[in-house]
Amino acid sequence: MRIIAHIDMDAFFAMIEERDNPHFKGKPLVVGADPKNGKGRGVVSTANYLARKFGIYSAMPISQAWQLAKEAQKQGQKECIFIQPDIEKYKRVSDKIEKILRNYPTRIEKASIDEFYLDLSFAKNYKEAQNLCKKIKEEIKQKEKLTCSVGIGPNKLIAKIASQLDKPDGLKVVRPKEVSRILNPLPARILPGVGPKTEEVLVKLKIRTIKDLKKLSESQLKKLFGKFGEELYKKARGIDPTPIIEKREIKSIGAQITFLKDTLNPKIIFEEFQKLVNKTFYEFKENGFTSFKTIVITVRFFDFETKSHEKSFPVPLTSKKALLSKGMNMLLPFLDKRKNPKKKLIRLIGVRIKNLK
């Protein structure tokens, strides 16, 4: 019998900041880009649960979050605190949580900085798995002063969905015989991979819940969404054979930046590009790689049109100097008529390297 648990740290970045700054306790808190009094660029990284009551959520434009916070304040709510993320600190905490989990006799997949999958198939039954997760939750709370929500199910998909059904600081168990009953009334949007565009198509077909989704055949879904349609058919039925991946293969490394102000100023763009190259090459070396063959340059213009240029080289590249010079040559056409005939201002640039050795 397969038993999988999904550990999801609650409002991770915000909760770390609350823990480390007691004066934030009991106040709405948003971690993200500098809002600059409603004129800031970038997005919300995470918001604590008090800020979420204002409608603020992850990936929301920071300017929109600022407006929502101010509207809430006008209505008598507490003033919202905005702080910029300290990713290195959050990584250190994530590593400590992983260390706690590795003290238990289980295979672990670190899905992201604040998410982990555990294979608890060694447990005799779901009750034993539940008791083990209670111990894990308590140890994390005791040692790191943070809470997490845990979902337990017969596969990774059900475990992940279960962890979302009892937040924060929850523990939800979905046994195999309960899968259909639990899934059917949930919004189709809860299924991993169903983003705004997919949801829009489904809503037009009057499909809002997973039960509605199950009315479509596999061939109908494939016609609508291609290969993802086949996956969606299985997900709606709680089917997920995906294994626990203990160590993920790094296939690419990169970084990007959103400018504080849209620009075509070569000096500003090249200075920021050099910082991106430095960051990318540092991670490249830190992960033990020695060469790369492909560079990808991404540019997003002021109107959100996004273009990319990918180039592979016959001889592998090994130095930061090579990445900077060849990457710069690929970026230059976006500053003139070759790839930017209307001379549109640039909002974001990014660099990524692939085919790593």
What does this structure look like?
This protein has 357 residues and is α+β, with helices and mostly antiparallel strands. It has four domains: 4-11 and 87-180, Alpha-Beta Plaits (2-Layer Sandwich); 14-83, MutS, DNA mismatch repair protein, domain I (3-Layer(aba) Sandwich); 184-236, 5' to 3' exonuclease, C-terminal subdomain (DNA polymerase, domain 1, Orthogonal Bundle), CATH 1.10.150; 252-356, Dna Ligase, domain 1, CATH 3.30.1490. It has 13 helices and twelve strands. The protein has helices at 12-20, 49-52, 62-74, 87-101, 126-144, 156-164, 179-183, 196-204, 210-213, 218-225, 227-236, 266-286, 320-331, and strands at residues 4-9, 29-32, 44-47, 81-83, 107-112, 115-119, 148-153, 171-173, 252-263, 292-301, 306-317, 346-356. The strands form three sheets. It has a five-stranded mixed β-sheet. Helix 4 (87-101) packs across helix 5 (126-144), helix 10 packs across helix 11 (227-236) and helix 12 runs antiparallel to helix 13 (320-331). The longest helix has 21 residues, at 266-286. It is globular. The two termini are 38 Å apart.
Short description:
The chain is built from 13 helices and twelve strands.
State the CATH class of the largest domain.
Alpha Beta
Total domain units: 4
The topology string of helices and strands comes to: EHEEHHEHEEHEHEHHHHHEHEEHE
> Unreliable segments (pLDDT under 50, ≥5 consecutive)?
none
Number of helices: 13
Q: In oligomeric terms, what are we looking at?
A: single chain
